[in-house]
Design brief:
Layout (H helix, E strand, L loop, with lengths): L2 E5 L23 H14 L18 H26 L2 H17 L5 H18 L1 H4 L6 H21 L2 H4 L5 H26 L3 E5 L1
Antiparallel strand pairs: 1-2
Helix pairs in contact: 1-8, 2-3, 2-8, 3-4, 6-8
Length: about 210
């Protein structure tokens, strides 16, 4: 017999940003900017040991430590989605697993992954379009919708930092904190991706 997955709370179909989505539900959007603020605090208070040396080359916010943490975090996301798909058979987790795998390859810096991740994103985007009817019901779950949108925005924020957009906007001390800003915001996005994977979609399995 086939296994099916349905949202637990059977929410009313509603568009994202509708009346059921007050701004208070979108507080995860603040996590990326909060991470930026944390980097600035660490920069201005070097006695904490979080950001030592020029451009935070030493301390807990050093590039090497944040990159190593990023590899671990996204690997956990990949494993979590593999388990969730095996248990729940929700297609969302299959797509998330593919996305996490692309991020893992980028984080460990395999040859060609810097540009290859964008190719992977295009392919996954096409996959999502083809599976849009299978994936759409999950968007009716507000928690999932909020965390998914907030996670995407935080990843975009990390890439804007990486491309030095904020230097063009005259962000103070951007040259000194660019590296920890990018790496920490990206790691926060990884954590948000994990939250989205674990609690974003609550489903139950049944038999038909």
């Amino acid at each position: 017999m086939a296994r099916i997955s349905q949202p637990v709370d059977n929410p009313r179909p509603a568009l994202a940003g509708g009346r059921t989505d007050g701004w208070r539900h979108w507080w995860p959007l603040l996590l990326g900017p909060a991470a930026m603020g944390f980097v600035y605090l660490a920069y201005f208070f070097p006695e904490t040991g979080l950001c030592d040396g020029k451009a935070c080359r030493d301390g807990y916010l050093s590039k090497s430590r944040l990159e190593n943490a990023g590899v671990v975090l996204i690997a956990i996301v990949l494993g979590a989605n593999a388990v969730r798909y095996y248990v729940r058979r929700n297609p969302v987790h299959l797509v998330f697993g593919a996305l996490a795998l692309a991020f893992v390859c980028r984080e460990v810096h395999f040859t060609g992954t810097s540009s290859g991740v964008y190719v992977a994103l295009v392919l996954i985007g096409a996959w999502v379009f083809l599976w849009r009817r299978k994936l759409a019901p999950s968007l009716f779950v507000r928690t999932f919708r909020v965390w998914l949108g907030s996670t995407a925005v935080t990843y975009v924020l990390s890439q804007l930092i990486a491309r030095r957009v904020f230097r063009k906007l005259n962000l103070p001390y951007e040259d000194a904190v660019n590296v920890p800003l990018e790496e920490l915001v990206e790691n926060v996005a990884h954590v948000m991706f994990l939250v989205t994977s674990l609690i974003g979609v609550s489903v139950r399995s049944g038999r038909k």
